[in-house]
Design goal:
Number of strands: 18
Shape: elongated
Number of helices: 29
Largest sheet: 6 strands, antiparallel
Oligomer: single chain
Strand order of the largest sheet: 4-3-2-1-6-5
Structural class: alpha+beta
Radius of gyration: 44 Å
Length: 684
């Protein structure tokens, strides 16, 4: 059955539908059109100034491409059997499968041949499609009524009036759509599904009036972006569309993949913050690359976007095609967020979660360096307290991501370790930061500020020394050994003379040239050492003789002074002993009196007063005697061996410890004496 023809008036530059009408008469390119406003006009098909006038079958695939290009592309992708059925409407004669594929390729850039193979059986089962011929001669033709979901409400009414159809709905009768949805009854398609020029209000009215045919449904993200690109402004219902798309950002990214780069370029400036729904687009795009996603969203919204993506994947079978598509989209989402110029605003926990399950690129080393660079940026923007409050689990996660990255002077791993050295140097003593590091890696950073970390006792003994020993023991050639000996001071200082000697003996055992050098160096070195020793001994003898003469003179002069002092000291000793005995007795009396008062108070108050009141009274009595408590139980402070008693193995000075019991001092300033040290335990 031949479908009614409609005339579409397009803007020549933007190709937006300006109006459409029903073709009522035709003579070549001269046609009579009943426009949707009720007026009748004789026009000529083709280009007319800023307009393009086209005649096409109502509801056919070409008609749909003009009035709703985005929805048509989505229709082909999600309901290919229906799309091939609509393509039949564009011809009044039977067409082959090859012709059908060519017609669909006009509106869809994907693999249409593969779609045909998938949709053929459902397409042929459609009662509105009639097949004739066999094999290479097999052709198809549309035999049903023309669907009205692709024309405006006014045109649909005109068509219903001419064909005596019902007023409100028309049965499309596409078994293809029913088969793909698992239903049996033919779907009811709204009369006014799409008006010109594809405004969202018309689409929503059509969608609400009845169940639209599969493929007529447009993803909210696509609808929002299309409206922004065509009209230059957001639709009235943009908030609802954005909220729906943002709940499933990966599906939104896959949906907008059907849009052209030009459409995205036009939509981005209009979308503003709503451009976040484009971040999971699974292809490169200059328009989206220019968006600073983190600054646009803010760190909390960016983290929420990642959470929504995780939730979208949760529960899907990993091996399904849909799960693979969504993971691919998530990979683009994560990379765009973490490549944002404002990535330093993100919370470290967000970055760790984002990179934990990200799709691995082909070049694993490049991924590792990229992740390390992101971590270096985020950690570099942290304050000291934020790092201090990080859990050991999060710090370990950072260390694990750095392990896959080589340590070199200008790399991201060195940047992270350098930040930790400047702000929390004690943390670097944990060997998790040095996993996978080799001798050459240490040599590369030993001339940078990290050299001070390598020279610390903890790192030198646990990290540097074992690698130095390993290198000396593994050297097999003269070049390897000499290169190792040329390492910077922070490393060379740990090379034991005996180990170096053994390495030379082993390496030069079968090297006649090197062995001759070594013998010569040893002889010359020994002679030089003896000469230096003789010269030094001669100088020392001369200096000691001069010192002996001066000392003898000093002894003679001091004998007389010593004699006079002995007489005076004898006289003073007798007087001092008497005074000391009196003072000592008084001190003991004062101490015993204070202790007795304390004991008497505690004994009397133990059964009648609270522990807090007794504690306060005891502290006042202590203060009266000049005792000062220090240390607050539960507080963390740097370890001081002079003021702290630690439970277990004593840590290094300034290591964070937690106070469990107070201590007391007596006196002030330089006269202060620690009577009882505060009890502490290591902080973990």
């Amino acid at each position: 059955m031949k479908a009614p023809q409609v005339v579409v008036d397009l803007d020549r530059k933007s190709r937006v539908v300006l109006r459409e009408g029903l073709l009522v008469d035709r003579k070549g390119v001269e046609v009579t059109v009943l426009w949707n406003d009720g007026s009748t006009d004789d026009v000529r098909l083709g280009v007319d100034g800023d307009h393009i006038l086209l005649a096409t079958a109502a509801g056919g695939l070409r008609h749909r491409k003009h009035v709703n290009p985005v929805g048509t592309s989505e229709l082909v992708r999600t309901s290919p059997a229906q799309a091939f059925a609509f393509a039949l409407l564009d011809s009044s004669k039977p067409v082959s499968s090859k012709d059908l594929i060519a017609r669909v390729e006009e509106v869809f850039t994907g693999d249409v041949s593969a779609l045909w193979k998938r949709a053929r059986l459902t397409f042929e089962a459609n009662e509105n499609v009639k097949a004739s011929g066999k094999g290479a001669s097999l052709k198809y033709i549309w035999v049903g009524q023309a669907p009205l979901d692709a024309v405006s409400a006014d045109i649909a009414a005109q068509m219903r009036g001419q064909t005596a159809m019902k007023e409100n709905t028309v049965t499309v009768g596409l078994d293809a759509g029913n088969a793909e949805r698992g239903g049996e009854a033919a779907p009811q398609v709204a009369d006014g599904a799409v008006g010109r020029p594809m405004d969202s209000e018309t689409r929503n009215e059509a969608r609400d009036s009845a169940d639209s045919a599969e493929g007529g449904q447009i993803h909210p993200a696509v609808e929002l972006v299309h409206a922004a690109s065509v009209s230059g402004q957001l639709p009235e219902n943009w908030g609802r569309l954005l909220d729906t798309a943002r709940r499933n950002p990966l599906a939104a990214g896959l949906a907008v993949d059907s849009l052209s780069d030009n459409a995205l370029q036009a939509a981005v400036p209009v979308l503003g913050r709503a451009a976040l729904i484009l971040q999971a687009l699974p292809r490169d795009s200059k328009a989206i690359k220019a968006i600073d996603a983190v600054q646009l969203a803010g760190p909390e919204a960016a983290a929420a976007l990642i959470d929504a993506a995780d939730a979208e994947l949760r529960g899907l079978e990993p091996a399904t095609a849909r799960a693979q598509e969504l993971r691919h989209a998530k990979d683009f989402l994560i990379r765009r967020l973490l490549n944002s110029p404002s990535v330093g605003l993100l919370n470290l926990d967000t970055v760790l979660r984002a990179t934990r399950e990200m799709e691995s690129p082909k070049d694993a080393a490049k991924k590792g360096e990229w992740v390390a660079g992101v971590l270096a940026t985020v950690i570099g923007a942290m304050d000291q307290d934020s790092w201090k409050n990080l859990s050991l689990q999060d710090k370990s996660a950072v260390a694990r991501r750095l392990t896959s990255v080589p340590l070199n002077a200008t790399g991201s791993r060195a940047r992270v370790l350098g930040w930790i050295l400047r702000n929390h140097p004690a943390d670097l003593a944990d060997d998790m930061w040095w996993r996978g590091v080799e001798f050459d890696d240490l040599a590369a950073v030993a001339t940078t500020p990290l050299a001070s970390a390598l020279e610390s006792d903890a790192i030198a003994s646990a990290v540097v020394k074992p690698l130095v020993v390993k290198r000396l023991e593994s050297a097999t050639t003269r070049r390897q050994l000499l290169t190792s000996l040329a390492a910077p001071t922070a490393i060379a200082r740990l090379m034991d003379e005996t180990a170096v000697q053994r390495a030379f003996d082993r390496v030069l055992r079968d090297d006649n040239i090197g062995r001759a050098w070594l013998v010569g160096l040893r002889n010359e070195t020994r002679i030089s050492e003896l000469a230096h020793q003789v010269e030094a001994l001669t100088r020392q003898t001369r200096e000691m003789t001069e010192l002996l003469e001066k000392a003898q003179e000093a002894v003679r002069m001091s004998d007389d002074r010593l004699h006079r002092m002995e007489v005076r000291l004898g006289e003073a000793a007798a007087s001092t002993n008497k005074l000391r005995e009196s003072q000592s007795r008084q001190i003991r009396i004062d101490v015993m009196r204070a202790l007795a008062e304390l004991c008497a108070y505690v004994d009397g108050a133990a059964d009648s007063q609270s522990a807090q009141r007794v504690r306060e009274r005891v502290r006042r009595m202590a203060a009266r005697e000049g005792l000062t408590p220090f240390g607050v139980p539960g507080r963390t402070e740097p370890y001081d061996p002079q003021r702290h008693d630690v439970v277990g193995e004593p840590p290094l000075p300034n290591t964070p410890v937690t106070v469990t019991g107070i201590g007391y001092t007596w006196g002030e300033g330089a006269d202060e004496i620690v009577l009882v040290r505060a009890l502490v335990e290591r902080t973990y």
